[in-house]
Amino acid sequence: MEREELPGLLVNEIGGVHGILHDHVEFLKKHFCLIPMKEFLENKENMSKKVQAVYLWWHKPVIDQDLLQSLPNLKVIANSGVGMDHLDLKLVASFGVKMANAPRAVSNSTADAGMALLLASARRLVEGYQLAVSSDMEYYEANFLGVEVTGATLGIIGMGSIGYKIALRAKVFEMKILYHNRKRRKEQEEQAVGAIYCEKIDDLLCQADFVMVVVSLTPQTHKLIGKREMELMKPTATLINISRGAVVDQEALVIALCTGVIRAAALDVTYPEPLPRDHPLLKLKNVIITPHLGIKTDKTTRMITEEAVENILAALSGLPMPSEVLPS
Question: Which residues are part of the catalytic machinery?
């Protein structure tokens, strides 16, 4: 099939800060004619009818009404991740455009990142590293202590595919696993990881030594963990957020960490990303912050692109998309 016969795929850019990875370009070009946003904007009149799909990498390009109106042949938008909070799903659907995310690709790497944050916070690895390499280090304080992970209680808020993968990992550490979810898991799934369902989130918060937040950002989950919820947690507890920054009330979190309401926090997500350089969270020793590393492995990013291509080709062929997302 010649290049000009391939369906046009709009991408933000190739490489750069918000562009698709160079290593993925050859694979994408087997299926699509790649159209970067800059090229599209410079020649919109000719390019607009060629675009049949959009591939969002790191939430770019921005999908708004003006862009949707300028793409008369657009059939599908594929997202490089699970969270769809950056998209107006109803607006996109009103143009007859289908949407897909990549839940299968991201679950393992995000679960790994969650457990890495839990372990790093529990054993104070970042603080320990800073001590070990400091120029004035002479000896280690005897009371530089972390907390035990093995046998501790983990509360998972959001038991979807990622949450369940976290439970599988936590089981190996002999952790007691509690979970809160909109829908209870099947009994055999609970038994496989030894998870106990908490219908009320409060029951989980007051028991857990580690609280892991793994929910999508929706109007219902915005600031799901706020002042009240943190005050229900143990003063020895650690809050870990690998979902979206706005799920946690960051102002309340700063106060909770400074006043001993909770022991520590480990965050792979914040709002905004990155935080302003003078943000108080960046000054606290009992916080670990990573730059949204959940999906960032070679294997996972490749799988994300493969899943996006699978969804796009299905939509363009009029077939069911494996990971279609419908507006609620």
Answer: 244, 273, 292
